[in-house]
Specification:
With 429 residues, the protein is mainly alpha-helical. The protein contains 20 helices and no strands. It has 2 domains: 203 residues, Clc chloride channel, CATH 1.10.3080.10; 190 residues, Clc chloride channel, CATH 1.10.3080.10. The longest helix is centred in the N-terminal third of the chain and has 43 residues.
Length: 429
């Protein structure tokens, strides 16, 4: 190694280490705040069951108005922004895709959305926030940005959000990056390891959805896994198709709504509130508790899956900042609960996991990430082979329903032109 290259190498490794530590701390704090935001809304709902009919539509309209006015790059999940931003990190920072201003706004507005009971998760926003932090630290230490840096930050965000290090690395390669590169994998693994150690040291070795120790017999797996893949692929593909079709449709009523985003958000907020009240609060928030109950082999009403599907779809169409990772897993758990009703003699938790993987992969089209994230979140390594079978089938079926991969299709709206010139305050961000 040349002597002049040594300081750059030290700064690069320092930047990766410092960025991973900082984003790990931020991710844990974000998780804590998100849980308490959801808890506050649940207490409001208990005290005044019909208050969401007013609070949720007005609040969602305000969030969308503020987002469009002050930070349009913070809308939606956050993962499409990282996919787009990895193509040109410097331009992405200047344009606000992965700037610290956008990260702070994204965090605040996602918490606000959870305070309103909307069906959003913190995982997608954590990916965007983590990519922004990693990029900021590298710029501060005068290290040239690359796509690998942005993607490694996003991968570490997945790991810190779910306590799933293997899934973080797989997500970086399978979803955020368009192809495999050794440098990308090594950088992602380093960032994931460090952020994971931060999470482990502060939050302990927890299992996100609780441990699921049950197994399906081989004969049952050969029947239920393909069915879960087909059902999840169809439902997940329909979700993606609905989201993408809403943004492309030339039908006059939909064009009317798209041209009035604040009114659209208020209408979506009203539908979310009605759905939540009608289900006794089962569709509020990310759906973590409801999914955990199903994974631990305690039944939920059969309408939970369809109701969560509707609430998550309407929330996403509103344009509010917030992710769909956890809500999709919760919806998938509901799909698994429905599927389990046809196999009463089989372990409920095991069938629920197959429904989760089928629907989740049907939405995000990342089968390896789906298998690793669910097996790590539920400590269900004995189910890996049935999960993998269901994931592969779901990916193929979803592609027949919706040709485009959701995050990559949505990222096209965030690709900035090469001649883009950001305002000075955006560059400083």
């Amino acid at each position: 190694m040349r002597a002049q290259e040594f300081p750059v190498l030290v700064r690069r490794r320092t930047a990766t280490t410092a960025g991973a530590i900082i984003l790990g701390l931020i991710a844990l704090g974000f998780a804590w705040l998100a849980d308490h935001a959801s808890l506050l809304f649940e207490r409001l709902f208990e005290a005044s069951p019909y208050a969401p009919l007013i609070i949720t539509p007005l609040g969602l309209g305000l969030i969308v108005a503020l987002t469009r006015r002050y930070c349009p790059m913070a809308r939606g999940s956050g993962i499409p922004q990282v996919v787009a931003g990895s193509q040109d990190p410097g331009l992405a920072i200047a344009g606000g895709l992965i700037s610290m201003k956008t990260a702070a706004f994204k965090l605040a507005m996602t918490l606000a959305a959870l305070l309103l009971g909307t069906s959003v998760g913190r995982e997608g926003p954590t990916v965007q926030i983590s990519a922004a932090i990693m990029a900021f630290v590298h710029r501060t230490l005068k290290i040239e940005l690359s796509a690998a840096v942005v993607i490694a930050g996003g991968a570490a965000g997945v790991s810190a959000a779910f306590n799933t290090p293997l899934a973080g690395v797989a997500f970086a390669i399978e979803e955020l990056a368009s192809s495999y590169h050794q440098r990308l994998a090594l950088l992602a693994m380093a960032a994931v390891m460090i952020s994971g150690l931060v999470s482990l040291g502060l939050a302990g070795d927890y299992v996100y959805f609780g441990a699921m120790r049950e197994m399906l017999p081989l004969k049952a797996s050969l029947i239920i896994a393909p069915l879960a893949g087909v059902a999840g692929g169809i439902c997940g593909g329909l979700f993606s198709l609905a989201v993408l079709s809403f943004g492309r449709a030339a039908w006059a009523p939909l064009q009317f709504l798209r041209q009035r985003p604040v009114r659209l958000a208020m209408l979506c907020g009203l539908l979310v509130a009605i759905c939540g009240i009608a289900t006794g609060g089962a569709t509020w928030g990310a759906g973590y508790e409801q999914a955990k109950v199903l994974v631990e082999s305690h039944s939920q009403p059969l309408w939970f899956g369809p109701a969560k599907f509707l609430s998550t779809l309407v929330t996403m169409l509103s344009g509010t900042p917030g992710g769909i990772f956890a809500p999709s897993l919760a919806t998938g758990a509901g799909v698994g609960g429905l599927l389990a009703s046809f196999f009463p003699g089989q372990p409920l938790g095991a069938v629920v996991l197959l429904g989760m993987i089928g629907y989740f992969v049907g939405v995000v089209r990342a089968p390896l990430t789906g298998v690793l994230i669910i097996s790590e979140m539920t400590d269900s390594r004995a189910m890996v082979l049935p999960l993998l079978a269901a994931a592969i089938i779901a990916d193929g079926v979803s592609a027949l329903v919706c040709r485009d991969r959701l995050y990559h299709a949505l990222s096209k709206a965030f690709v900035l032109p090469r001649h883009y010139e950001a305002a000075p305050e955006m560059v400083k961000a």
